[in-house]
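Pilot study result, target chain (368 residues):
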Amino acid sequence: MNPRVAHFLLIPELAHSPPNDAAVTAWLDIGFDVDLFAPGGQFAVDRYGHRVRAMPAEYGYRWLARNLMSPRWRSYSVFSGTTEDPMAVAGSLGWLHRRPVVTFADEIKSGSYAGDRSRRWKDLCRFGMRRSTLTIVNESERLSLQREYAGMRADAPMMVYPGCFREPPVRADRSSLRVARGLPPDKLVLCYSGVMNHGNGGLWMAEALRRCPDLWVWGQIVNLDPLTRGLLERLEGHDRLVLESGRLSWQEAWASMAAADIGMVVYLQDGPQFQHMGIASNRLCMFLAMGVPVIASRQPSFEFIERYDCGVLVDGPDSMASAIQTIAARIDTMRANALTCAREYIRAPQRWLELRTRLSLVAKGRSQ
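Predicted structure:
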């Protein structure tokens, strides 16, 4: 029987996200079976094979009180979790049952992004983070941010794994994707991916649609409510706006980038983590790894985009039209540069090998 890891996810939809895919496949590769815990417990994990199971968990004191002392936890060799709420559970279980703990700090809930959980609960989350044998953040600029937020020792073992699949899905057929969605075969297509709101550049997208009469915009918008959909369908230029009919899987979304020409990567939120996005951004990693140049909001962690000439940094919506024109004029070169950037800067395959090695050391109880 293989040793087993309990990995706690904030929500079930993250079970196949790039960082959790990296974690699960690394654990499997070093000989561990994996139980993925998330609220509800009913989510598909068959993509990983029979050694991965979906299990229920809740993130609150009542669930902890009912489950913390259960002898079933002794069957696990390691507890790991994403941030923030799952680390209250993973850390408490590791402390009580004397098992190593690993934090996958995909989010840092500090400053204006602190959320509405009580201070007492957040202290328990940070306790779990501090108890970790290894902490993985998704951008080098976030190393000090996570260390300070969690109150970690200066020499606490940490590493970086980006918001990127170690093996990107195969690109789908561009012509078929465009035909299925009503996107013209010969027009420039800007892709907006993720939640539609001000912080993610919703108004910037609308400005691009208004200012560029030959541009088509493709919205892969998560949890699109009827009001937002109705407003989008009434935008100036809405006849050139195509909204995805349903939520795509992580793998489907990446593969579908064959139909896109430019990706939008905008973060306007003032929470500390949003000012240090870099390769933590799943959508940025998706665009570049699939050969799609980007328009990104200007911040130091995105400066590598211009160094690799795979996109344009902009300061506001008024710059969207000129950025689109710049990329359109050099689209083939920038597509090739995007792939080069993913290979040389994001380096997901190499970072995954390091992750696998570091997790193996954790499991063996060795220092980092």
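One observation from the pilot: The mean pLDDT is 96. A full batch analysis is planned for the follow-on phase.
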